Amino acid sequence: MNIKRALAVSRRVFMDLKNDKRTLALIIIAPLFAMGIFGLAFSGQISGVNVIVVNDDMGMATPMGQVYLSEIVINNLDPDTLSITTMDDVASAVAEIENGNAYAVFYFPANFTNVTILAYNQMTEASTSVDIHIDMSNVNVAEAIMQAFNDAVQTTMQQRGLEMPVTIDRQAVYGQNASFMDFFVPGIMAFVVYILTTLLTLINFVGERTSGTLARLTATPLRESEIVAGYAMTFSIVGTLQALLLLTVGMLVFGVNVEGNVGLAFMVVALLAIVCQALGILLSSITHREAQAIQLIPFIIMPGFLLSGVFWPLEALPLWLRPFSYLVPPSYAIDACRSVMLRGWGLEMIWTDVVALIVFAAVFLVLAVLSLKRRG
Amino acid sequence: MLSMHAIKVEKLDKKFGDFKALDGMDLVVRKGEVYGLLGPNGAGKTTAIKVLTGLLKKTSGDAEVLGVTIPNKDITQKIGYMPQETALYIGLTVHQNLEFFGKLFGMDKAKILERETELLKFIDLEKWRDELVANLSGGMKHRVSLACALIHEPEVLFLDEPTVGVDPELRVSFWNFFSKLKEKGITILITTHYMDEASHCDRVGFMRSGKLIAEGEPQAMLKEAGATSLEDAFLFFARRDRT
To answer: What does CATH list as the number for A47-159?
Structure first.
């Protein structure tokens, strides 16, 4: 291995990226685009859901005057999540759900306040209920509605001094005050580097094969290992710069907080970039034209998207599918970056992820060199 | 090792599956000569060059370049190869391409610049030094490709169909380049299927079905075949080979 020749290759790839304004724009804009779009889309709260309240509650006479518990619950419904209108009868309200104009109807019966208060004071065996008619066809929206209603009921009980016998006291071990973006940025850093490094190397290398430059290189003193090393140098640097860019914008625009050593996270990203460039070279050996390389793109993106844990926690995968996430290199990098940046962990805690990435790098680098050595 | 031969090939075979691209090829190219390998498409010319430059593995037989058995990475320092395709980094400038290939041969910056100035003058592209290769015409790309093959002052030059798709004017100037290179003592093995061009060579070899069927000086070949053109001469030798 001659380091000067490897450096020449590295510089050559750099210049190729730099001279091509479109690729350069892709390298800079795509990560920010991904962070912006995904970050905003996934962190978005559900809001403005149309619900209808039908309130027949007669209230209850108390020494302080007539009390309507239903009114208090309704006032406690989160006005951001729910957009509330009132109607007089349940049948026409439910018809609105059937027409697709509303997601839910909350119906408070006439005895709502009366029975609730009597039952709480153990003065009656009777019980009352709120009827909720709900369109469950959108699971996320339905859950948000139920959550909002439960919250309103709990708040009401607390306000009236009707306390639950059990309270839950949450103490965050990690991630106290962590926002969605704090959680998302470390993941997207690694994810973007995975996608872009693999694709850029793949495209660049298919170009080397189709244009004949790879053949020409074979007739020079340049060795296969030096080609791979040169690409690895360039893309580990490009990957780190992309991560730096994402983090900077994340901090400035989205107010992202970092707990741990950012340098360690960048090292993990650089390692991932080395794995991915080798993967790109390897994939280029099974394609003969750009068009075939493009067909591979879904096979690069989808596993990373679904199995790396960047958007959905791995715990959300069916049990039988989870082991496959171990086959996807970004899984380790995402886990490591999150642990470092959210939990403030050091190398002594994330070493298993780092070792996994090193093993991937070693295997893919060797395979990439072998794929280049293969001659007709 | 001292040798009078720049290239020496004996009983060289190259098979792709059942297909014999080279079938017991023998060839000797002397130092300092321009040797033209002629033959129709599929005769094995390009395969021969690819084996000699280390791009393909031989199936059997012997092949030496400058006395060294190939494949051998060390010998690449002394050979230049211009492939059939333009094979340049089109996203790089002319200068960046030359610099890159120079570095691969271990040349330092000053030496590369010196060679670059010489070569750009030689191929008449001095004004285009900082232009992206993508923006050059086809003929210009061919000339840059030749310059890249020459950057490290090779002793043996392999040119695979350098004049395919090149306009007549540029073809003439290419042959002028080649004869200037010969004056500097460079050995050139060139493949072409333009038979008329081969008269510029010191010697030509006719290839057919993976082997050499006849070789000699162009004039002598014409005489032996009783032909007025190398094309007719080729047909004569091809007929003789069949019988």
So the answer is: 3.40.1710.10
